[in-house]
């Protein structure tokens, strides 16, 4: 009978997730994942990574992406990369031809690579995505720091390990939240049709139901 028959331990599972969900911020529009800070060596190429989650497949006609650069927290945002039915490089003088889109919207990845990093490239990089019919716009924010020499190796290893495990944990939590949200949404959509089905099943259910759960 239960539409959730395919979930293991449905009650326990859903209780745990509901708890997690209630701890999360209320506006679970679109989750955008981007590192808060990226350090890049002067003259190197660096990938500014931005990915997102959505319940919906990306349709090129509707999907919208804006990458903007902000030199200081007070400065206005300069649009340098945009997706509007296709990727468009705004070729800002500031970046010349050093910006290359290296993401794949179909895989929820809108990262780009900045080549030959200059000291003047320091600042904030904003990634905005909108994937209708998701109504909320997602926003990721990366602060780029440009280094002129390699940082000492020994402490960065620990930092990477700690960062990776914290990041991994967050990614799992976010993934779980998304699954719950999408399952809920789909369930909501099915509610009406399910009500009708239940009525019909009730009529033919007299002989017991040996094949419960098969489709
Ligand atoms: C950064 O690298 C460029 C060459 O890629 C070099 O000319 C410049 O001096 C470097 N700047 C610093 C501060 O190291
Ligand atoms: C930001 O702008 C406000 C006015 O718009 C100004 O008072 C403030 O000093 C500025 N801050 C910085 C860090 O430039
Ligand atoms: C990107 O910017 C355009 C205006 O230049 C705006 O219409 C669009 O909604 C923006 N998209 C996102 C995802 O912010």
UniProtKB/TrEMBL annotation:
Residues 1-29 form the signal peptide. One of its GO terms (cellular component) is plasma membrane. The keyword Coiled coil does not apply. Its main location: membrane. Residues 26-143 form the Ig-like domain. The chain crosses the membrane at residues 158-180. It is a single-pass type I membrane protein. Keywords: Disulfide bond, Glycoprotein, Immunoglobulin domain, Membrane, Signal, Transmembrane, Transmembrane helix. Residues 188-215 are annotated as: Disordered. Residues 192-215 have a biased composition (Basic and acidic residues). It is found in: Membrane. This is Ig-like domain-containing protein. It comes from Zosterops borbonicus. The lineage of its organism: Eukaryota, Metazoa, Chordata, Craniata, Vertebrata.
């Amino acid at each position: 009978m239960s539409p959730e028959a395919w979930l293991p331990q449905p009650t326990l599972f859903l209780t745990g997730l509901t708890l997690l969900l209630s701890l999360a911020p209320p506006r679970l529009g679109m989750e955008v994942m981007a590192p808060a800070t990226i350090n890049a060596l002067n003259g190197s190429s660096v990938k500014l990574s931005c990915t997102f989650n959505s319940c919906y497949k990306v349709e090129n006609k509707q999907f919208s992406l804006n990458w903007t650069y902000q030199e200081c927290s007070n400065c206005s945002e300069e649009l340098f990369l945009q997706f509007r039915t296709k990727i468009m490089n705004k070729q800002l003088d500031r970046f010349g031809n050093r910006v290359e889109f290296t993401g794949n919207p179909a895989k929820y990845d809108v990262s780009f690579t900045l080549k030959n990093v200059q000291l003047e490239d320091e600042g904030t990089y904003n990634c905005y995505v909108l994937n209708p019919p998701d109504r909320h716009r997602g926003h990721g924010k990366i602060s780029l720091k440009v280094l002129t020499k390699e940082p000492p190796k020994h402490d960065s290893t620990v930092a990477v390990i700690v960062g990776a495990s914290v990041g991994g944990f967050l990614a799992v939590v976010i993934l779980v939240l998304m699954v719950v949200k999408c399952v809920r949404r789909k369930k909501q959509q099915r509610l009406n049709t399910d009500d009708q089905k239940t009525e019909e099943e009730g009529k033919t259910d007299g002989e017991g139901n040996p094949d419960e759960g098969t489709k």
